[in-house]
């Protein structure tokens, strides 16, 4: 995980570590994939306030909505909303954060 970063977006390995640690306080998950610009999490227990969590995820990684265009081929990128990410998380329990 400490090799994942996005210097052009001011995301460092340390900031990723801090954010994941804070998410561990409200959810249970494991890191299932890590590379230079991407981290994937699988949730065993989602946060009780998913709306607030999804907003936090979006603030940390705005491209997160782009990652879910594949989940619904009938939606255009402009139609994607935080609510869509919420629904996707409830259904799949997978979150992919990508900064590259």
Description:
This protein is α+β, with helices and mostly antiparallel strands. It has one domain. The protein has three helices and three strands. β1 (28-35) and β2 (38-45) form a beta hairpin. α2 (50-60) crosses α3. The chain is globular, with a radius of gyration of 13 Å. The relative contact order is 0.20. The mean pLDDT is 82.
Write the layout of secondary structure elements.
Layout: H1 13-24, E1 28-35, E2 38-45, H2 50-60, H3 82-92, E3 94-98
Antiparallel strand pairs: 1-2, 2-3
Helix pairs in contact: 2-3
Brief account:
The chain is of the alpha+beta class and 100 residues long. The protein contains three helices and three strands. It has one domain.
Instruction: Specify Rg, calculated over alpha carbons.
Output: 13 Å
Strand order of the largest sheet: 1-2-3
Indicate the percent of residues in helices.
Answer: 25-40%
Total number of domains:
1
Q: What share of the residues does DSSP label as strand, in percent?
A: 15-25%
Which spans have pLDDT < 50 for at least 5 consecutive residues? none
The DSSP helix count reads 3
Give the strand tally: 3
| Shape type | globular
Output the structural class: alpha+beta
Note the run of SSEs as H and E.
HEEHHE
Distance between the termini: 15 Å
Biggest beta sheet summary: 3 strands, antiparallel
Mean pLDDT: 82
